[in-house]
Design a protein that fits this description.
This protein is α+β, with helices and mostly antiparallel strands and 193 residues long. Helices cover 31% and strands 18% of the residues. Strands 1, 2, 3, 4, 5 and 6 form a 6-stranded antiparallel sheet that branches. The longest helix has 25 residues.
Length: 193
């Protein structure tokens, strides 16, 4: 039990770090200005400068995950992703990572960051959850939502505790706005990754 409690504490600490990173990015006045100006090249550079491998002050399990900027529920930018592969016309307004952030516009500090329910990504078919926060301009008008999309398996791998005797499992509530939970499929039903 002591090992389980220690790992639970470690997960809580990592989620705190995650919320700090998202809050720090979402509260940047520069990010708000770039979103308002609809400047995709400058937004890409902004994210790359702060999150790229040379300057990333991020836990290893967070690096390389997708960051998404949404305006009015629609994808504006995904990073890192080649520009020619961007699927910008996706309505994400019903998704928990969007609605949850929009319900916290007056949150203070990391309380402004929403950790979403689990979902399966339409882009890469992986199970994920998001950490998201609204981006506001200097007048406190919401100009967008910034979200970091994460694979729980990366967090489990970072724990380094799965072996022949021990398995680490991260679980959470399923976002019903995306698709039915694959665990609720009838016997013999097909599930993916």
């Amino acid at each position: 039990l002591d090992n389980a409690q220690a790992k639970a504490g470690w997960v809580a600490g990592e989620l705190l770090r995650l919320r700090l990173v998202v809050h720090g990015m979402a509260s940047s006045p520069e990010l708000a200005n770039l979103i308002t100006g609809n400047d995709l090249p400058a937004l890409t550079k902004f994210l790359a400068d702060r999150l790229g491998p040379q300057g990333a002050n991020l836990p290893l399990w967070i690096r390389g995950q997708n960051w998404v900027i949404m305006t009015n529920g629609w994808t504006m930018l995904r990073w890192p992703e080649p520009e020619q592969e961007r699927k910008l016309l996706q309505d994400r307004s019903p998704r928990d990572y969007f609605t949850g952030a929009m319900e916290r516009p007056r949150g203070v500090g990391i309380d402004s960051v929403h950790v979403s329910k689990f979902y399966r990504s339409a882009e890469d078919d992986h199970y994920k959850f998001g950490a998201s926060a609204v981006v506001q301009d200097t007048n406190e008008t919401v100009v967008g939502v910034l979200a970091l999309m994460l694979r729980p398996v990366n967090l489990v791998e970072a724990l380094g505790t799965s072996n022949d005797r021990t398995k680490t499992v991260i679980f959470g509530v399923w976002d019903q706005s995306t698709e039915p939970n694959p665990e609720d499929a009838p016997a013999g039903g097909r599930t993916k990754k």
